[in-house]
Amino acid sequence: MNLEMVMQELETLGKERTKKTYISNGAHEPLFGVATGAMKPIAKKIKISQSLAEELYATGNYDAMYFAGIIADPQGMTESDYDRWMDAAYFYMLSDYVVAVTLSESDIAQEVADKWIASGEELRMSAGWSCYCWLLGNRQDIEFSESKISDMLDSVKNTIHDSPERTKSAMNNFLYTVGISYLPLHEKAVETAKAIGTVEVKRDKKKSSFLNAYESIQKEVDKGKLGFKRKHVRC
After folding, report:
1. How far is CA 222 from CA 85, 211, 215, 225, in A?
2. 48, 53, 99, 208: which could form a disulfide with 68 (CB 3.0–4.6 Å)?
3. Residue 235: what pLDDT?
4. If you write DSSP's letter for every residue of 168-221 in order, what string do you get?
5. Residues 85-112, buried b or exposed e (16+ Cβ, 10 A)?
6. Where are the alpha helices (DSSP H) in the chain?
7. pLDDT by residue (tens digit) across 142-154?
8. What is the reported pTM?
């Protein structure tokens, strides 16, 4: 399939209601409003195609950019490629659920995510923290430095309330993910979450969200989800 064929298929799958939902979360035109699950049949036909992924991402169409992440070759992308994708990721559903997800399946994931976290830019920071969520929720615990993750928990504790809004949300998710999916620091994550308490995330034209990682961790522990790992990160 080429670019034109994929764009035509995506357009036919678009739903006005889904489009409105995406726009309410920060997406803007052009977009069709395609549910992510509806993309799976096209993805099965293509499997992996970095060249097509690049063409789709460059369209600026939200649905095409999302689909690009599904068919991209994470190992075939360099740090500069990921930075270029981040430059075009204009809201959190692209930064955290397309770019960060794709990065998490590469060998340079932690190295790039660390730089983004230190960047001071809201969406880059959000993508960096989100990438660690995808990593910790999928890879084995032994693939991570316990002292490094511990230091990151300390950073969350010290800075979350003063961080940019989307970054707050991603940091809260990181705290929750460590508490559930990274067993060596489960106890520290719980204590950190308890100390942080409720985090307010302000949103444009919407009511604030109030996040509490401690309560979220406890709910999952009660369900027997401690140690949970995803089999796959991408669709």
Report:
1. 38, 18, 11, 7
2. 53
3. 63
4. HHHHHHHHHHHHHH-GGGHHHHHHHHHHH--EEEEETTEEEEEE-HHHHHHHHH
5. bbeebebbbbbbbbbbbbbbbbeebbeb
6. 3-13, 16-24, 40-46, 50-58, 62-71, 79-88, 92-94, 100-104, 109-117, 122-136, 146-159, 165-181, 186-196, 213-222
7. 999 999 999 999 9
8. 0.95
pLDDT by residue (tens digit) across 88-107?
A: 999 999 999 999 999 999 99
Residue 230 burial (10 A CB sphere; 0-12, 13-18, 19+): exposed
- Of 151, 88, 92, 85, nearest to 118 by C-alpha is 151
d(CA 224, CA 164): 33
* Alpha-carbon span 185 to 191, nearest angstrom: 10
**99 is written with which tokens?**
């770019």
Dihedral angle over CA of 38, 41, 43, 44, nearest 10: 150
